[in-house]
Design goal:
With 462 residues, this protein is of the alpha+beta class. It is 67% helix and 12% strand. α5 (96-136) runs antiparallel to α6, α6 (141-177) packs parallel to α12 and α8 packs across α12. The protein starts with a helix and ends with a helix.
């Protein structure tokens, strides 16, 4: 009896659910059919199509500037009203917004092409060579791809300024050689309508490049080093290259031929706890993983020879032969550091570090200037895009009257090479001679800015 009751209750519940679903479907069909033919839908659709037509006709900014001009006239601000009235749509019918949008699009297109060009140069030069060496050691492909992705912010930060220079020179040179600049000037708009998108896009690229250089680059460098440590820990042979020399502060490892985990002809120079120089020679060694903390690999040497020279008398030495010798290679010997490098810090961290060094030991000018150089480089390299954008306009209009794209490419590459060399030389001088990093890192941008002023004066006189 109880089972029949529950069975009937279940059937009743399912029947109610089916009836509710049918009513829902019927009401939904009714609403859709009424909405499809309703006046509200037609009105909304007409309004949206009107907005779309206005957007396609580039009238948003025009209507906005005219609305602002009416408000200014209402409050008796005639000068401001005249400015906003002709801000986008001139009385002669010329649409300034159309021109700005066209120049923005051309500049960005050429910048993107130039950016890919420099990106591939730096990518092939720095990343693919590293990946090739790592792949030879049979490291998993996914780890290699992740390692490359961590190094990409460095390539992006380096490519952006040079891409701005070359891309803008080629774009503006094409406008000059195709007489589009002459048409713009004949229409009464002048150079200002070209200078506004050039400066705006230059500032935008500089800000994006600064974000990559200040945040993504330190983060990527830290991740890169951590992943490299884990790769070496899982496959120690990655760090050993055939016919190479590994040096640390007081140790030197001369490596012969490396075949997978087998290494031949190893020479190891170091000093013991008493200061005596020691030389270890082995014809054949096997590279093994180590489970001890701080030890990145273990070299199992067969038939090694150990020669120890006494520090007080080099002619007095000891020779030791053995059947087997285990040599532990510590992590500190491979990576040579225990603290974060300046290029792995953000600008805020560098600023705090500089203040701490000045408070603790202001006489250590070499270390202090190293951090100052990196701090100024955080700003000078990204904002080089802004200075290059300023320089590109007068150079393109003065020298790009004929074959503007080709001339812009040639001039841009020459300037990029000199700028890159000046940045490297300036960084070397700061680290070695103690020159303030502010002057060395901002000197190339200052030179580019002064050259831009000079060529603007020449362009104005023409």
């Amino acid at each position: 009896m109880q089972e029949n009751f529950f069975e009937a209750l279940k059937k009743r519940f399912l029947s109610l659910c089916r009836n509710a679903y049918r009513k829902y479907e019927a009401s939904r069909f009714f609403i859709r059919s009424r909405w499809k033919n309703s006046l509200v839908r037609k009105t909304v659709r007409k309004y949206l199509l009107l907005l779309l037509a206005k957007w396609r006709a580039f009238n948003f900014l025009n209507d906005g500037s005219r609305l602002i001009s009416k408000v200014c006239y209402r409050f008796k601000k005639d000068r401001a009203g005249d400015f906003f009235k002709n801000a986008m749509q001139l009385d002669g019918g010329l649409n300034r917004f159309v021109m700005l949008r066209y120049i923005f699009r051309e500049l960005f297109l050429y910048f993107a092409v130039a950016f890919l060009f420099f990106f591939m140069i730096f990518f092939c030069n720095q990343i693919l060579l590293i990946a090739q060496e790592v792949l030879k050691k049979r490291v998993p492909l996914w780890d290699v791809l992740v390692l490359i992705s961590y190094a990409l912010p460095m390539i992006i930060a380096q490519s952006a300024p040079y891409a701005t220079l070359v891309g803008f020179l080629m774009c503006l040179g094409r406008l000059a050689s195709d007489n589009e600049v002459m048409i713009i000037r004949a229409s009464g708009l002048g150079y200002r309508v070209i200078l506004v998108p050039v400066i705006t896009l230059g500032v935008t690229i500089s800000l994006c490049s600064f974000f990559v250089n200040d945040y993504l680059l330190p983060l990527g460098t830290l991740k890169y080093n951590d992943l490299k440590k884990s790769i070496i820990a899982s496959n120690p042979a990655v760090e050993l290259q055939s016919n190479s020399i590994k040096r640390t502060n007081d140790k030197t490892l001369v490596i012969g031929v490396v075949d997978k985990t087998q290494v031949s002809d190893i020479l190891f120079f170091d000093t013991d706890e008493e200061g005596n120089e020691r030389l270890i020679i082995a014809e054949k060694s096997d590279v093994k993983k180590s489970k001890d903390s701080g030890v990145i690999m273990r070299l199992e040497m067969e038939n090694p020879t150990v020669i120890t020279f006494h520090k007080n008398n080099k002619n007095d030495y000891d020779i030791l032969h053995a059947d087997k010798l285990d040599l532990n290679v510590f992590e500190s010997s491979v990576f040579e550091r225990t603290q974060i490098n300046p290029n792995e810090m953000t600008s805020y961290d560098l600023y705090k570090k500089i203040q701490a060094i000045e408070e603790i030991n202001s006489e250590n000018t070499r270390q202090l200037n190293r951090y100052r150089t990196e701090f100024n480089k955080k700003f000078s390299l990204p904002f080089g895009s802004f200075f290059f954008a300023l320089l590109s306009l007068p150079l393109a209009f003065l020298f790009g009257r004929h074959n503007g794209q080709t001339i812009g490419l040639i001039i841009g590459i020459f300037i990029a090479v000199f700028y890159w060399a000046a940045m490297i030389i300036g960084q070397m001088f700061s680290n070695r001679s103690g020159i303030n990093g502010f002057f060395t890192m901002w000197a190339p941008n200052t030179a580019v800015g002064l050259a831009a002023i000079f060529f603007y004066i020449r362009l104005a006189r023409k």
